[in-house]
Amino acid sequence: MSFEMIFFILVGALSVATAVGVVTSRVAVHSALFLLVHFATLAILYVTLNAQFLAAAQIIVYAGGIVILILFVIMLIGSAPLETRAGYRSWVPYAGVALGILMLAGMALTILQMPPTELNPEANQGGVPIVLGIELYSQNILLVELAAVLLLVALLGALLLARQPKNEESPISNFQSS
Amino acid sequence: MVPTSYYLILSAIIFTIGAVGVLSRRNALIIIMCVEMMLNSVNLTLIAFARQWDNLNGQIFVFLVMAVAAAEVAVGLAILIAHFGISKSTNIDDVNVMKW
Hints:
Among the domains of chain A are: 1-79, NADH-ubiquinone/plastoquinone oxidoreductase chain 6, subunit NuoJ (Four Helix Bundle (Hemerythrin (Met), subunit A), Up-down Bundle); 128-164. In chain A, 71% of the residues lie in helices and 0% in strands. Chain A has seven helices and no strands. Chain A has helices at residues 3-24, 28-48, 52-77, 92-111, 129-138, 141-161, 171-177. The termini of chain B are far apart. Chain B has 100 residues and is mainly alpha-helical. The relative contact order of chain B is 0.13. Classes of the chains: A mainly alpha (178), B mainly alpha (100). Chains A and B meet through helix 1, helix 2, helix 3, helix 4 and helix 5 of A and helix 1, helix 2 and helix 3 of B.
């Protein structure tokens, strides 16, 4: 049991525990906070996998962007607990967990048949920004342009969806006045 | 060093938890969070394989997946807020305006 293995098991267990916390929380804010810790544990794992720039990007984009967005939406929309619907829904979580275990067993059987290969400790030169930058801007410049176009389209789409017509009240003020 | 298959098993577990969450929860915000978890598990798989084969293409793919996930969350939350203005409910079963 080397230190790396113990570290991986601890961080992996925390990652799985927070993932379960996201799925099973009754309060939406708790789920968002569990998700934040889950993203942080994944960033730690990326550092052990020689992907240092992606670990920083994970914290900035996911933990510092997406979770903040979700928390803002929870603040605007509110997280009133949903009352249960008709009775036939009560078996859904158990069926979901059973099918999930089935899927996990299938994946695990495939993964465990992988032959072990030897790993280079300096693989990808640590994933430092200069190496990733050289690879990205020389071989994959088209992907950078496509990502830029995608982000522009998403920005315009979100602006259009959130636009409030001049003579109507916004959905947010509707919610707050009720 | 930790073998690649360990990271893949962890990624499979996280993906399964996210999938079960998407299918079982009714709150639209929780569903969006579980979709993000599934995307992150795939990121972990890609980076693990990038280390195994000493190939940076896996990490570049993760770069693009992060950009796509950020764009998708922004637009998805905008859709959710727009829908909430009509129906006043975050229950995913109420997103049925197009049902005839």
